[in-house]
Specification:
heterodimer, A: mainly alpha, Fumarate Reductase Cytochrome B subunit, 0% strand, B: alpha/beta, Rossmann fold, 3 domains, four-stranded parallel beta sheet, 21 helices, globular
Chain lengths: 219, 450
């Protein structure tokens, strides 16, 4: 048991990061290979200026008309995506673990802040789940896998929260926390979580077409 | 007026002979072969990224006027159209039923205007119109394209114009307009095949077929502005392109090529085209790509751009501003497609005394409901089109304007249908109509009454 815990908290973390990292590279290589084979024209129409114009416009809250049409969803979604990165990266115990192993260190939230932010993430996920059940046009598009995705994202946060408060079964919760975090990392490149790195490209292409060919805004 | 609710539910029951006969000829092998051929050979990284990146968040729904017109029925959201067509084809590896295909034809041809508004509402910029055109491509290859639009493509293929206009009819129409106009304007000409002219003026085939007056107006404007212009007598004069909307890219490419070649043969500096949106999309954005040009090989000027230039440079002078209150419909293919909406507003302000904005407007304007080849699917689909255009009707009514300017042929016909069907009190006009009415023109001899 001890060696298992040692494995998932040691080498497996690095393995997960490697799978994530190389998985993303693999996806990019595949994408560029496909572009070179069939749609080489994409490079012709891609414009750096208009790609960034579009991406930045869409990063500004409530600039795009679409964001103003669904203000609640957008606000929650915006904060959720921001925290999804910030909380794990700036969690004091994560920062300490990393400092212990590679001597790098950076800013960390104090524990009560992280605790609150974790709850925000969990409530956002519950909101997304309810939205998928309640809003007809979203329900129509929803597949069972969409709920599984929400669960996969939620697990590391729920288990982390419970473990931090040491409500029960601390040891098992930590194991579940580590494993679910690793699972998510591994899945990102190979599932629709890949929108994390693909979305900027689809946005950039549409932004380029709208900007340099159509001379129109796309937000 | 028919009961709208029964029409919505009846959309599934529309009988289109072209679709029905096409379906009866299909075998399961042919269906899966064609679908897989298109999905594997004709798509690439873009399609893959779109399919794999969509998170099914449903934000595109609010972009679609057809979704809004159907009381937010979830089947009509852009992503739902993808789900009900191309995603299902991928999932079943092309092994889909004829019943499924019948629905797919309806969704892609009658329930999507390929207006690209949804790609402005998707946070990832996913181009759903592109995917609907892929469905149409599959329908074309399965030969189940709706009858009326297919007939238009057949006409393009045989005559290089969309209305079966014969060459002598074309020339005769131009000369008839010239003759008529010369009775009013001294030395007015519609110069045919004038080598080295500055401008080649091009129109869509419905103009010579039944709106010859528009050619008359254009000639008067050219004459008054003192321009060096010409029109080609040979095929290539029609800038319209319905094949682009049926997924018949081969013919679509031929049409655009004939158009550029007509201009090249005449050694003109630029092509000025009449007030048509889809034709602009064809020769400015789509046809050129099929024949290997990043951007069009000839300079293309849409009527809005052209009129703007004439009015701001003072080549055309306004005698007296147009009195009635007007509103402006931004055609998708020249606003979202070419950013001409600000120039259009400047023209309105030069020409008209009072102007009311339509909301939403500019890039965000709703499609007229006829675009993307939807109106060209003809009478079998007209009732469902009217149901799908309710949101547009409400948008028009909110302006309270009496005159609606629509600088696009497709929009014009579609908006007239809406006005008639819903009993909206509005009159649709082209910019050309208003310019002709308010411009300074030296009439040399009043037209004789016949």
């Amino acid at each position: 048991m001890h060696s298992f815990i040692h494995f998932i908290m040691g080498p497996m973390v690095w393995i997960s990061f490697m799978i994530f990292f190389f998985g993303v590279i693999f996806r990019f290589l595949k994408m560029f290979k496909l572009i070179n084979e069939k749609e080489i024209f994409i490079y012709t129409y891609m414009s750096l200026k208009y790609s960034f114009r579009s991406i930045f416009a869409w990063l500004i809250p409530f600039l795009p008309v679409s964001t103003r049409k669904s203000p609640v969803f957008y606000s929650i979604s915006y904060i959720f995506h921001l925290l999804l990165f910030l909380v794990p990266v700036c969690l004091l115990s994560h920062v300490l673990l990393i400092e212990e192993s590679v001597q790098w260190s950076w800013f960390a939230f104090n524990d009560s802040v992280s605790d609150t932010l974790t709850l925000v993430i969990i409530f956002s996920l519950i909101f997304f789940m309810v939205r998928r059940i309640v809003v007809p046009e979203v329900k129509f598009l929803t597949k069972p896998s969409d709920f599984i995705f929400i669960l996969i994202v939620g697990l590391p946060f729920v288990t982390g929260f419970l473990a931090f408060h040491q409500f029960f079964a601390y040891r098992w919760l930590v194991i579940a926390h580590v494993l679910s975090g690793e699972l998510m990392l591994i899945l990102i490149p190979f599932t629709r979580f890949s929108h994390m790195f693909m979305a900027p490209f689809t946005r950039a292409y549409t932004g380029s077409e709208f900007g340099s060919v159509r001379h129109a805004k796309d937000w | 007026m028919q009961d709208k609710d029964t029409l919505t539910t009846n959309a599934k029951d529309v009988i289109d002979e072209g679709v029905e006969k096409g379906l009866s000829r299909l075998t399961p092998e042919k269906i899966s072969k064609v679908i897989n051929q298109v999905l594997t050979k004709e798509t690439g990284a873009r399609f893959k990224a779109y399919v794999e990146t969509c998170m099914r968040c449903g934000l595109c729904a609010d972009a679609c006027s057809i979704f809004l017109s159907n009381d937010r029925d979830p089947r009509f959201s852009p992503a739902a159209k993808v789900k009900q067509t191309i995603l299902e084809m991928i999932k079943k590896k092309g092994k889909v039923s004829k019943l499924f295909l019948k629905d797919a034809v309806r969704i892609a041809h009658a329930e999507c205007n390929v207006c690209k508004r949804c790609s402005m509402y998707c946070p990832f910029g996913i181009d759903i119109a592109y995917m609907m055109l892929l469905v149409r491509r599959i329908c074309h290859k399965l030969e189940i394209t709706p009858l009326y639009i297919q007939d238009t493509v057949n006409s393009h293929s045989a005559t290089m114009n969309q209305m079966w206009v014969k060459e002598d009819e074309w020339i005769d129409t131009l000369q008839w307009q010239e003759e008529d106009a010369r009775e009013e304007f001294k030395d007015l000409r519609i110069p045919l095949d004038k080598d080295g002219a500055d401008i080649m003026y091009s129109v869509i085939a419905p103009e010579p077929k039944f709106q010859a007056g528009l050619i008359y107006q254009a000639a008067v404007i050219m004459h008054a502005a003192g321009l060096n212009w010409t029109m080609p007598s040979t095929p290539g004069w029609d800038n319209s392109n319905m094949a682009m909307f049926t997924g018949d890219f081969e013919i679509s490419g031929r049409i655009a090529k004939a158009h550029y070649e007509a201009a090249a043969k005449l050694h003109v500096n630029k092509i000025v085209m009449g007030e048509c949106g889809h034709a602009f999309r064809s020769v400015y954005d789509v046809g050129n790509r099929w024949i290997g040009w990043t951007m069009p090989p000839v300079k293309l000027v849409h009527a809005i751009d052209f009129y703007h230039d004439l009015l701001t440079s003072g080549r055309i002078k306004i005698k007296e501003k147009y009195k009635k209150t007007v509103t402006l419909h931004d055609p998708c293919n020249v606003s979202r497609g070419r950013g001409l909406h600000e120039k259009a507003r400047e023209i309105v302000n030069i020409l008209c005394e009072s102007f009311i904005e339509m909301t939403p407007n500019r890039e965000h304007n709703y499609c007229c409901g006829a675009g993307g080849g939807v109106i060209n699917c003809g009478p079998p689909w007209k009732n469902t089109r009217m149901v799908n255009n309710r949101e547009k009707k409400e948008q028009l009514e909110r302006t309270g304007a009496k005159v609606l300017i629509a600088p696009c042929h497709n929009c014009h016909s579609g908006l007239e249908d809406i006005i008639e069907y819903y009993g909206v009190e509005m009159e649709v006009k082209f910019f050309g109509d208003i310019i002709y009415e308010v411009m300074e023109k030296e009439i040399y001899q009043k037209r004789r009454l016949k």
